[in-house]
């Protein structure tokens, strides 16, 4: 069954419900995103219309009704976006993204997050027209890093090769050092014996 398309005003009401989870008519009225002043009856009428579409339900809470959305933000917005891409941008998702980016300002963090999402497409993809596929913003950086690593490899290999003989020589010297350490007690005993002999003569 196709999800009914909400109007601009209905989307604002749904936005309040998605954020709050559930809300009374007064709470929806106070939380409308565009901040415009509206009559209580206007918002009530929108909620009733959404209820007739099956997009909103209500539960009694004392003398008031609490309204909540029956579909998630992702389901509703996804349906609207897919329809918009097909009808307005002729299926060219990249043009839709470009239009969004030209209309809003992103913080550096938001820009990085958006770039990451573009590099890892998920969900139902919309076909791109030939020549309109978005380029990978990190491809150039990765290519430079790869080139630098390739350039540094011979120097690293040469350094390891140069260090090898010194390491080998140090390993060879180890037995001599060990032997000298073994001779030390005998030398000490000889010195002690000579000192004792000299003391007797005196």
Describe this structure in words.
- Mean pLDDT is 78; it is low at 124-142.
- It is elongated and about 125 Å long.
- It has 202 residues and is mainly alpha-helical.
- The protein contains 7 helices and 2 strands.
- Strand 1 (56-61) and strand 2 (64-69) form a beta hairpin.
- Among the domains are: 8-69, Orthogonal Bundle (Arc Repressor Mutant, subunit A); 72-104.
- A two-stranded antiparallel sheet has the order 1-2.
Please tell me the CATH architecture of the domain at 8-69 by its name: Orthogonal Bundle
Rg, Cα atoms, Å: 39 Å
SSE series: HHHEEHHHH
Instruction: Extract low-pLDDT stretches.
Output: 124-142
How far is the first residue's CA from the last residue's CA? 119 Å
The CATH first-level class of the domain at 8-69 comes to Mainly Alpha
Backbone shape: elongated
- Across the major sheet, the strand order is 1-2
Strand content: 5-15%
Helix content: 55-70%
Task: List its traits.
single chain; 202 residues; mainly alpha; Arc Repressor Mutant, subunit A; two-stranded antiparallel ribbon; 7 helices; 67% helix; elongated
């Amino acid at each position: 069954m196709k999800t009914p398309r909400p109007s601009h005003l209905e989307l604002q009401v749904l936005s309040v419900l998605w954020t709050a989870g559930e809300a009374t008519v007064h709470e929806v009225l106070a939380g409308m995103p565009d901040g415009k002043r509206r009559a209580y009856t206007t918002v009530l009428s929108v909620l009733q219309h959404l209820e007739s579409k099956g997009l909103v339900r209500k539960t009694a809470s004392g003398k008031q009704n609490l309204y909540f959305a029956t579909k998630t933000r992702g389901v509703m917005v996804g349906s609207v976006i897919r329809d918009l891409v097909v009808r307005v941008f002729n299926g060219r998702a990249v043009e839709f993204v470009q239009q969004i980016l030209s209309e809003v300002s992103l913080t550096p963090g938001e820009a990085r997050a958006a770039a990451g999402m573009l590099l890892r497409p998920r969900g139902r993809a919309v076909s791109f027209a030939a020549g309109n596929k978005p380029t990978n913003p990190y491809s150039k950086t990765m290519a430079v890093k790869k080139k630098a690593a390739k350039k540094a490899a011979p120097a690293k290999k040469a350094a390891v090769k140069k260090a090898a003989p010194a390491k080998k020589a140090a390993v060879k010297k180890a037995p001599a050092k060990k032997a000298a350490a073994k001779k030390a007690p005998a030398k000490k005993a000889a010195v002690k014996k000579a000192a004792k002999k000299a003391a007797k003569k005196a």
